[in-house]
């Protein structure tokens, strides 16, 4: 009996000993993790203390703790504020359009690049396509403004040459959102394609060889092997995109929009920017931002739960 107990004890302590040995071997990696974990804590968790401002009648002189509680007054007034309703509607419209039009664009580019056999052409195309990702919207907005300029822009030059009337794309409500979608695709399509190209590179080559034996052409291999193999990655990125559906692109819109297109271009983030930094209503702006983030979390959890029920894919 004692021998059996001793054997069981050794059996239980073995995994613990193995974990300790493994931890000692990787102590350098754990030490390297300390800096990013500390930065994550300082810049992402410590500032959460500021959420209290949304529930206060905040006065900078009194500070957060000494300011009066507002009994959810800001959250009650959100949906009675015409400007907030307009910003919420615009955010949803722009985000949904980006999800429908811009989300598939990197997938298409990655699949097409995978079919290119000329290595140099493939590398040059990929490099050119993801270059805009590394440029800020401050720079890109200036470039877009010049290209779409009614006086100097190349697009309006072509329109005028064909006998048409020049269009001020960035000051016209009918053209501003399409300009947003196109420029967003231009900036992010190459960078997004990298993820899908990495997923394509992990596909088992035996599948393509088997398809060759069965006489499948390149198009059929793309449709029946490449695209289905990308489904898990597409699902994960789609769920994350749903969580960001109330982030319609603050940097892009702030640098491109103007008062003439506020009716269609003013989103939650630009509304918070004006309320918080221009009008100094910090408590109300915090309440709006908190509302947006809570909705984002709910969408991620809900979308993941629905997809997990219908398939084996998901974030967790």
Tell me about this structure.
- Helix 5 packs across helix 16 and helix 6 crosses helix 10.
- This protein has 17 helices and 2 strands.
- The chain is globular.
- With 316 residues, the protein is an all-alpha fold.
- The chain folds into 2 domains: 50 residues, no CATH class; 236 residues, MetI-like fold, CATH 1.10.3720.
- It starts with a helix and ends in a 6-residue tail after the last helix.
- 22% of the residues are buried.
- A two-stranded antiparallel sheet has the order 1-2.
- Helices cover 73% and strands 1% of the residues.
- Pfam families: BPD_transp_1 (PF00528).
- It is found in: Cell membrane.
Feature tags:
316 residues; mainly alpha; MetI-like fold; 17 helices; 2 strands; globular; transport; Protein lplB; transmembrane helix; MetI-like; cell membrane
């Amino acid at each position: 009996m004692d021998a059996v107990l001793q054997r069981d004890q050794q059996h239980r302590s073995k995994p613990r000993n193995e974990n300790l040995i493994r931890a000692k071997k990787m102590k350098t990696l754990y030490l390297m993790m300390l800096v990013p974990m500390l930065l994550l804590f300082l810049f992402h968790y410590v500032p959460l203390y500021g959420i209290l401002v949304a529930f206060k009648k905040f006065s900078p002189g009194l500070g957060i703790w000494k300011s009066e509680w507002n009994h959810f007054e800001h959250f009650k007034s959100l949906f009675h504020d015409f400007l907030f309703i307009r910003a919420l509607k615009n955010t949803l419209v722009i985000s949904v359009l980006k999800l429908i039009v811009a989300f598939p664009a990197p997938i298409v580019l990655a699949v097409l690049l995978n079919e290119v056999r000329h290595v140099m052409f493939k590398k040059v195309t990929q490099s050119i396509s993801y270059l805009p990702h590394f440029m800020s919207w401050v720079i890109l907005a200036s470039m877009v403004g010049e290209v779409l300029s009614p006086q100097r822009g190349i697009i309006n030059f072509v329109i005028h040459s064909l006998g048409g009337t020049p269009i001020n794309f960035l000051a016209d409500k009918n053209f501003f959102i399409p300009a947003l979608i196109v420029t967003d695709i231009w900036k992010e399509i190459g960078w997004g394609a990298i993820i899908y190209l990495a997923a394509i590179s992990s596909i088992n080559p035996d599948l393509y060889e088997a398809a060759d034996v069965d006489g499948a052409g390149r198009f059929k291999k793309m449709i029946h092997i490449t695209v289905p193999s990308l489904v898990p990655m597409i699902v994960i990125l789609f769920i994350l995109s749903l969580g960001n559906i109330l982030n319609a692109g603050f940097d892009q819109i702030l640098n491109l929009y103007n008062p003439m297109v506020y009716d269609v271009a003013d989103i939650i983030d630009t509304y918070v920017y004006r309320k918080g930094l221009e009008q100094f209503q910090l408590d109300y702006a915090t309440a709006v931002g908190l509302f947006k983030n809570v909705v984002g979390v709910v969408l991620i959890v809900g979308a993941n739960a629905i997809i997990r029920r219908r398939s084996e894919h998901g974030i967790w």
